[in-house]
Amino acid sequence: MKLTVFGATGGIGQEIVRQALGAGHEVTAVVRDPARLAVTGPGLEVFRADLTDPAAVRPAVAGRDVVLSGLGARGRKDAGVAARLTRTVLGAMEAEGVRRLLVVSAMPVGPAAEGDGMLDRAMRGIVFALLKDVYVDLSAMEAEIARSATDWTVVRPPRLQDKPVTGVYRSVVGGFPRKGRFIGRADVAHAMLVMAGDAGTVKQGVGVAY
Q1: Coil, strand, or helix at residue 67?
Q2: Are 99 and 67 in contact (CB under 8 A)?
Q3: N or C: which end of the chain has fewer CB within 10 A?
Q4: In degrees to the nearest 10, what's the CA dihedral of 40, 26, 100, 112?
Q5: Please, which residues have CB within 8 angstroms of residue 57's CB and are 6 or more apart in sequence?
Q6: Into how many domains does the chain fold?
Q7: Domain limits at 147?
Q8: Residues 141 and 105 sit within 8 Å (Cβ to Cβ)
Q9: pLDDT in 10s for each residue of the chain, 210 residues
């Protein structure tokens, strides 16, 4: 497949690029600073852009099969980034007629897992309160995506870890895995690449966790 990856210098974004290249896909990595992209290899195109103008981003998505995004705030000071930059991506995709989109959101934005006890629900509320601005931003991003004409999938992980890819995790379409508290960034990337070809995840939020 021909893939475009936004947020390609982030923890999940770089893993998407690395694993996609390893699987033989052609990858366009959209970055602000090419020096921060540690991944190289045949099939990789690096596209420099600051994501302020959908017209400038159009060449990065033109003719692609799938767009994957790891865009998002790195902390409360960056709140608002996810919705704003994703709006640019959506505009470029609409202009080029590219439909398949997968993005990273977060567990607290989606529905609670069925059967979660009081402790899990309490922890969820505490996490949301501590990073409220970030999650409000992600909620706005999800709303923008839901209104779009894309065939979208929103992937919602819990607390992220730096671990090697395992390919062993749980996923729940329209919900979240019970007692799912952690997942590695590499496995979030793995899940997104698997879901890229899964019609059952189109226009769905998907919870992923160990």
Answers
A1: strand
A2: no
A3: N
A4: -40
A5: 30, 49, 51, 88, 89, 91, 92
A6: 1
A7: 2-209
A8: yes
A9: 999 999 999 999 999 999 999 999 999 999 999 999 999 999 999 999 989 899 999 999 999 999 999 998 665 666 678 999 999 999 999 999 999 999 999 999 998 888 777 767 666 666 676 678 888 999 999 999 999 999 999 999 999 999 999 999 999 999 999 989 999 999 999 999 999 999 999 999 999 999
Could you tell me which residues come within 8 angstroms of residue 87 by beta carbon, excluding any fewer than 6 positions away? 144
Residues in contact with 169: Cβ distance below 8 Å, sequence separation at least 6, in sequence order: 183, 187, 190, 191, 208, 209, 210
> Rounded to an integer, what distance in angstroms lies between the CA atom of residue 35 and that of residue 32?
9
DSSP state of 79: T
Q: Are 11 and 185 in contact (CB under 8 A)?
A: yes
Q: What is the DSSP track for 91-146?
A: HHHHHHT--EEEEE--GGGSPPPTT--HHHHHHHHHHHHHTHHHHHHHHHHHHHHH
Q: What is the CATH number of the domain that holds 71?
A: 3.40.50.720
CA angle 120, 107, 199 (to 5 degrees): 130
pTM, entire model: 0.92
